[in-house]
Fold each of these.
Amino acid sequence: MLEFNWKPDKTFPIPLHLQIVGYIKEKISLNEWTIGTKLPSQRTLAELFEVNRSTIIAAMDELAAEGIVQGNSGGGTKIINNTWNLMNQNYNWNGYITSSNHQSNHMMIQQIDTAESDPNMIRMGSCEPAPELIPQDKIQGILKKLSVSSQPLGYEEPKGSPFLRKEICKYLKTIGIEVNPSSVLITSGALQGLQLISLGLLHANSIVYLEKPSYLYSLRIFQSFGMQLSGIPFESTGINIKKLSEKHNRKRGSILFTIPTFHNPTGTVMPVEKRKELIHFCEKEGLPIIEDDVYREIWFENPPPPPLKSFDNNGLVLYVGGISKNLSPGLRIGWVVGSEQVIARLADIKMQSDYGSSSLSQNVATELFASGLYQEHNDNLRKKVKVRRDTALTALNEHFKDIATWNIPTGGYFIWLKLNNPLSMHQLFAKALNRKVLVHPGYLYEFHSNQHIRISYSNATLTEISQGIRILSELVIEQL
Ligand SMILES: Cc1ncc(COP(=O)(O)O)c(C=O)c1O
């Protein structure tokens, strides 16, 4: 990941292109940018450094003349040499990095991950609950209680703590899923659940059908192992089942990934009748489903319909849930629910990867469920998140009325803003970052989209939400 948290200073007596040369050389000399690293395009560099393209060309010419970079006909410029490396004989890892199985994260996601840690940033990209939404005092109370208990912190069973799995089963019953603890696997967040499914159940040619747009497009966990993502058109009620049926080619090893409840990024909720229809279709076609349900508890007026899993009589649905969105992402507690055969397979892969999730986190989660604090906290959380959603909607009505349309979420953390006119999202993102506003360009969730922005109201303060949306509107209007 190349870091660009610096810009040349126009007030300095040193020409801008030489300042850029100096910055790039410094990155190379610190071994932050290694030989073989590809630099962004000239256009992107010009946007990142906020200079004219001619300044970038002059800087690249200078670096090329010193033998530090080399351009190629495909338009990429690579770092090919550095004197510091020659002196130190530092090993060039690039061949290993680029030939490993796992793909790098989206360049933009890497940039976002770095920007997230800027304390002055208005974080409207993140779907992490704000500190005030995390029940710190309750967790502290539990930690205190655990500190005097005699529970050993050894390895847990392959499927995870039996106490936690039992509590999760009780909770699942309240949302319509009746299973035994042997059908539940504790994972380190929902994301690990998805990763285990990709490693343990799919093969290099599997096709993963998914909504278009989808959160899954922003990850590389399936593509890294050769699986293909196949986007299915989306409508106001969720995935278009007719289109899914047209696209589904009955290839062995295919699977459907769906977020039917408070979909990321659109906030959509699939109505109950369609849930039944989808299950019926998948049963008929023998197409298994990964149901990602991590936003379920964050509803505002009415609870969402029961999960797809509750209508599944054949063990076709792998249900992925967790507490990261509604309680604490840092505890890294998630779960996968499926047939015992599948759960045993995933547990085996998990044992091979990490010997189980943190027992301390599992003990905390067990207490949260068993004491009733989980439900109590959710009731509280919903009220607070609704205020955030309303603040975002008020600001949108004030600033985006004439230039965009958007959904009114009934739960979850997202507003999927559709600009009336397409524009360069790269440019908008860079300008917003410069004004300390972090949002997610829609193309992270739907390749080539240049009309959508995902706004999250989970993390920024109320003042920041209003301010961030106002700044964003100014930048959009500037670009129209
Ligand atoms: C739909 C969806 N699934 C899974 C995750 C990952 O959750 P966790 O932090 O529990 O791994 C996210 C987080 O952004 C998400 O939006």
Note: Residues 283 and 313 are 9 Å apart (CA to CA).
Amino acid sequence: MKIGLICMEEDRTLAYAASELKAYLERMLEGAGAAVSIGETPPAGVGAGARPGDDLTISLEVTAASDIRNDHFDIEIRPEGGRIAGNYARSVLIGVYYYLYRLGCRFPGPGKDLELVPELTDVGRLYLSYSHTASYYHRGVCIEGADSLENALDFIDWLPKLGFNTCFIQFQVPYTFFARWYHHENNPLLEPETFTVRDAAVCSDIMTEELKKRGMLLQAVGHGWTGESIGIPSVDWNAGDIRLTERQRRMLAKVGGKRELFHGVPMNTNLCYSNPEAAEAFRESVVRYAASHPDVDYLHVWLADACNNLCECDACAGSVPADQYIRLLNAIDEKLSAEGIGTRIVFLLYQELLWPPVTERFKNPDRFVLMFAPISRSFNSAYRADGELPPVPEYVRNRVTLPVDPGQNLAYLRAWQEHFAGDSFVFDYHLGRAHYGDLGYVHISRIIHDDIARLGQLRLNGHISCQEFRAGMPNFLPNYVMGRKLFDIDSDFEETVGEYYQAAYGSGWEEVLACLTELSELSDCDYFNGIGPRTDPAVAERMRRARAVTERFAGSGYFAEKPESAPQARFWEMLRYYCEYAVYLEEALGRLAAGQTDGAKKSWTRFMDTIRENEGRFQPYLDVYRICEISRNFTGFR
Ligand SMILES: [Zn+2]
């Protein structure tokens, strides 16, 4: 059988979609003796048709003048010919991956070695008619944790396979995320490698290139403007030995009577936003960046990344932070418009900016996208879209406490929505810290699923996950559920989980699911995340039981069976390793919660030793830097 693929216009993303479809079809149809080729793009105005010499011609095309905003594709493949069409080139690529999924391919983790590509002996299975519009517009992830360039590129490659359309490269240069890995922070057993800010810029360019090749949306920056705009580099959260000029000092926020870097960290330092010189520097910095980065589709303009450190000078204290923020944003918009720059600006509801504006309003709301970032929320339960919300407490400058309860968090969102009705999404942290507290990853996947199901009712148009890319222990179910649910709100949790486990483990998957579900039921994401008392007998008892469950499973016969494919062998290997170190973590958590500080430290050290020694073997799946940092700074291991 001869299959011909034709791109209906010259477009690098369509060309990439065709090359991907060719590569997978060739692998799948190898035994059936099929040949797949990519034909020449026809001249403009010439429609698709069966190509002479092909048994089946499939055209890839972007449908003109679609009024659908969310990614949409039509797959129509019949014996007389076929097409995969989408409203954007990336929608065609997403459609290609969806087609492959329907043909039996599975993508249960980032990286080619985790992909399952079945053999297709019956060419009759190639025929399919299916259309779909993604349920939300913004569907993506934001880089956090400690990453190699390969980790980032594997993740980008994985995103459209799950239906995601967006990647957020954080900061002007994403130095800290790569430097943590290449310097092997928190893993003294690995020899640090040289890695500079310039290297990070190269990584960022390569990521951007890979995203644009796929037609993906690029979001960028976030924090860091406050320092960068007055000439203080802000590429990480570290305190540096920085000598301030007088000019820089007078533009900094006055906190406790002093204008200085907040605990020495530029990223966490606010400016005196009522100072016209500081406001102008901030505006210029954003406009210059937008002008020189046309690839950035959504530019995040946030203030400092810390709380209760706003300027207390008389002029600043006269406004709530959100009013000062909107004044800055309106000034940025005005300059961008004057320069003909269309970049969308994302503004942030976070920390003191959770409190809504009082007097200021956006002059050009279409420029802006609201981003709700409930960083202090609980992950033990999902958002509720019904019921009364509590009132928003009064704002007192530099005396705020952040909300934990999901309902209290939503009260702030609702208050802002009374002032802004434009585009929006949530920036959430399921896979940023709390996920380490879920020992089976079934619970956090369920929370992700339920939260995403309710986004529409919360009047939010998507979800960007602020997360570790290496969040794959015991498996990558959370990201898989996230992508599928954002793409199709009607997807069913149990079905997605069953499909995932069958793909990852093959025979024996039900037993793995039963074990990891039990571990999830015994877990407490909030405890790991530092929420609640550190001594907690109920947590101690549950960790004792979790350890017994893990030991029982590790000693069972399931690992003796021969996996059916190389990717499944890898998933079983990951699971065996997981059981090996999880018992130390469960023991450490149990002892910590029982108030046995010395014993907890001993178990935690064994846990850390194990994952450090094995990081080379399991690098893409567990972020040793991050789990160490969280368990020290939040959970309470010292
Ligand atoms: Zn001030």
Note: The chain has 20 helices and 16 strands.
